[in-house]
Write a structure and sequence with these properties.
Layout: E1 4-8, H1 16-22, E2 27-31, H2 34-42, E3 48-49, H3 56-72, H4 77-83, E4 84-85, E5 88-89, H5 95-119, E6 123-127, H6 131-137, E7 142-146, E8 160-167, E9 170-177, H7 178-200, E10 209-213, H8 221-227, E11 233-237, H9 247-255, E12 259-260, H10 269-290, H11 293-299, E13 301-302, E14 305-306, H12 308-340, E15 342-347, H13 353-364, E16 369-372, H14 388-391, E17 401-404, H15 407-415, E18 423-425, H16 432-438, E19 447-452, H17 465-482, E20 489-493, H18 507-513, E21 518-520, H19 525-530, E22 532-538, H20 543-549, E23 554-558, E24 574-577, H21 581-593, H22 595-612, H23 619-629
Parallel strand pairs: 1-2, 1-6, 2-3, 6-7, 10-11, 10-15, 11-12, 15-16, 16-17, 17-18, 19-20, 19-22, 20-21, 22-23, 23-24
Antiparallel strand pairs: 4-5, 8-9, 13-14
Helix pairs in contact: 3-5, 4-10, 6-12, 8-23, 10-12, 12-13, 20-22, 21-22
Length: 631
Amino acid sequence: MSKNLILLFEKFAESNDLLEKLNSSNSVIFALDYHSHKQLTEMNIEHRILDADLTESDLIEINNIILNISTKWYLNKIVEKELLFENINFGWLLEQELYPSLIQIITIFFSLIKIKNKLNPDYIFVSNSLTKLVSSVFTSTSISSIEDQNNITEYWNFDVFSIKYNFGRIPITLRIPRKVFFKLRKYYENYFIPFFNTIYSHSNKSYPSIVLVDFNPSLYQIFLKKLSVKNKNIFLLNRRRVAVWNLESFKTVKNSKCILGSYEHYIDKNDKDKINNQISTMKKKLKLLFSNNNLFSDLFSINGVSFWNYFSEYFIRYCEDRFTEAIYEKIAAKNFLLNTKPSLIIHFYEVALQEKILIHEARKQNIPSIILQHGTPHVSFPGFSGMNSIHGTLPLSNDKKIALWGPIMEKYALDQKIDQNNLVISGSPRHDSYFKLKNDVIPSQEIILITLGQIDKKNAGSQLTNTYIQYEKAIVLICKTLKNFSDRKKIIKLHPGDMIWKSVIVEPIIKKIDPEIQIVVDANLPKLIQSSSLIITVGLTTVLLEANILKKPTLTILSDPQERLSASSSGNTMFFNANEEEKFKNIVNEILTKKETSKIFVNNGNDFIKKYLANAGNASEYLANIIDQNT
């Protein structure tokens, strides 16, 4: 009797024909991801999880494959020749985005290769979106497609910009397509920025200029205020988010006398013609380059088995889109710097496409730049230091300065051979407001605050189906535990990033268990933490450090066991996994009912802050003085 192999990915249509195959004793069924596993579980269909049998050595090999492809495909001599635009290899610009987008698909592809010889099926039925991928492995087996529930495949995480806010108690997320966002940004730059700058911002030709890239004015109010008295022209150049989007940011930018930076202001008709001509040339070169199917089949392969037949469908258009953006960014960045003539650039994400281009142009014009630490990186995470080209925690060049938050990150930088002379131990300017708030009168503390981190796409282990399962279990455990504390207000704060793309949709899970829990996506987080008696996080997050500053006890449930190795990265907390139900419930109860237990957690948090942050409460002034001395 023939044997069927059924491979399901994401959400699938439950047709009668599929149901018959799923219930057949001749079928071997695999869930290829969390969503298909969840759907099969709800249907009571016995199945296996494809990535469950991957060994530790398998995961290491997969991680190396993903990193090598992300950072080396464009170094092939034939490819490099065609992707070189004014001394920038445009393939280099894609590393940060390509790496996380490859994790899931390469993990699946590797797993399929591994099981191929073990199963030897007669027929394969696979979700439509992965038919080409599966046919690349099972080349001699009859393959039929299963209809996907959603025919639109969203492959690239950064193809969507998420805007989150609360309408009363209702959390709302607007997901704006990348191209639409950039069109809206052009209107913002052509109309709002000139209007704002004409009325509120005036540059002084006798002052040196500095450029702050993608700063959130609401998070850096104190820093901008300290900097505004240093006789500098402060340009806010925001490429991935607008600088002014609400009343608070408007007031901050206005009061700190910042100038809103705009690329559009420095682009004339000749530049636009040049951009269009270069885009046209680039597309012709790409079309010819990607016609070399043998070359790319070899570059995008694992152990001689290529996934290019599948991946090309997404990658070719992706390259066209990003390189189109890059051509505009390159010409506009050059013009912006030539006209504003900054003495210094301060920025966060050197690995992002826009900042790679900006800093490359700045170096050509001998304009120095400083990276500012932007969070609590998981420096002890497996393989973290080897992925600096992806996460950009440290500078990409050895001759560049970086402003760090304190001794722990200073030690990490020195261990990675960063010159001591290039380290500025400034502390965290964004957290000065927390130290100020710490001294304010504390309101009623009847709130239990839960903050959800993203399931970060750090490596293959972080994207295993079981990681998603544990993430959901963590939320269920928290909601069920806190339901017993009816006298407390429970608030769940969602992560500000996109939690829809390849993630767990949490709102229905929360509301099913406890409809009284309030879900927020946009909130005054410092005051929310200050008003809480307990902070619970799912995953490691900077909120732990912020809770430590505000003297709040913290608990953390981890969905990814690798994160335990980064225990000292984000703040002092007590770790749990989602299976430690009784232990978690007992500790929650102790913290909420026994002051001495809560005090122990607070004291441990104080100790962490002393070790992690320099210039606590005065980092803005310290960094502003450093900038003043260097301009």
